[in-house]
């Protein structure tokens, strides 16, 4: 997708913004001219481990603000939002990307892990969206974009990993609810989910380094899809549970080979939670 400055002057707050999909989205929005606040539970990787998300944002021509905090804590989220607005003068885009991952079945998962999943995935994204509303209402092009899946009532998904699936589905339900609630205020709420596995740190742990490298796409596929959504009119593009391929195909992208993590011809690993995928 061609470089542009369509988001010049706009500000985005991205949770889980210093690694993986969040960092890729941050860099893509910066290429379009946006200011980006990166809210994460830990500081950026140490120097020498590759360019940081902040460096990628600045290299792309954007301004970056990195904020360390826990999105389960009201005061941390409130502080992150306040710092973002103070630094950049407003807020136009929220990307709920941060997530906890644990597919332990019901009989084995501890309630501490259950609380973590729902504290980060369900409550955390709701808290961030809720806290940013007063500022988004002042924006002429306000968007809330959450990384969460399309909804399917196929019981195999809930049966495979109930605690995790329920926490992810709750985010998608919030997208639909927010889209309806905020429609008259011109604030869009959409969700975006990958069609295939994305070569993030978590996926490498699940699949193994070699399999992930051969059967995954780069985070940039999600970043380009996110940008395509966030540049749309919030009054006409809201209440959708998109997949990255669906969005990019609507933008006339037909060649997805450049997004592959490696040069293998192996079949890509299907994403979780998509109709036709098998629970695993």
Q: What is the mean predicted local confidence, pLDDT?
A: 90
| Helicity level | 40-55%
Question: What is the fourth-level CATH superfamily?
Answer: NAD(P)-binding Rossmann-like Domain
CATH class: Alpha Beta
CATH level-two architecture: 3-Layer(aba) Sandwich
Topology of helices and strands:
Layout: E1 11-15, H1 20-31, E2 35-40, H2 53-59, E3 64-68, H3 74-88, E4 93-96, H4 111-136, E5 142-147, H5 155-160, H6 162-182, E6 187-193, H7 201-207, H8 209-215, H9 220-230, E7 241-243, H10 244-250
Parallel strand pairs: 1-2, 1-4, 2-3, 4-5, 5-6, 6-7
Helix pairs in contact: 1-2, 1-9, 3-4, 4-6, 7-8, 9-10
Detailed description of the structure:
The chain has 280 residues and is of the alpha/beta class. It has a single domain, classed as NAD(P)-binding Rossmann-like Domain (Rossmann fold, 3-Layer(aba) Sandwich), CATH 3.40.50. The protein is 42% helix and 13% strand. A seven-stranded parallel sheet has the order 3-2-1-4-5-6-7, with helices on both faces. Helix 1 crosses helix 9. The longest helix has 26 residues. The radius of gyration is 18 Å and the shape is globular. 46% of the residues are buried.
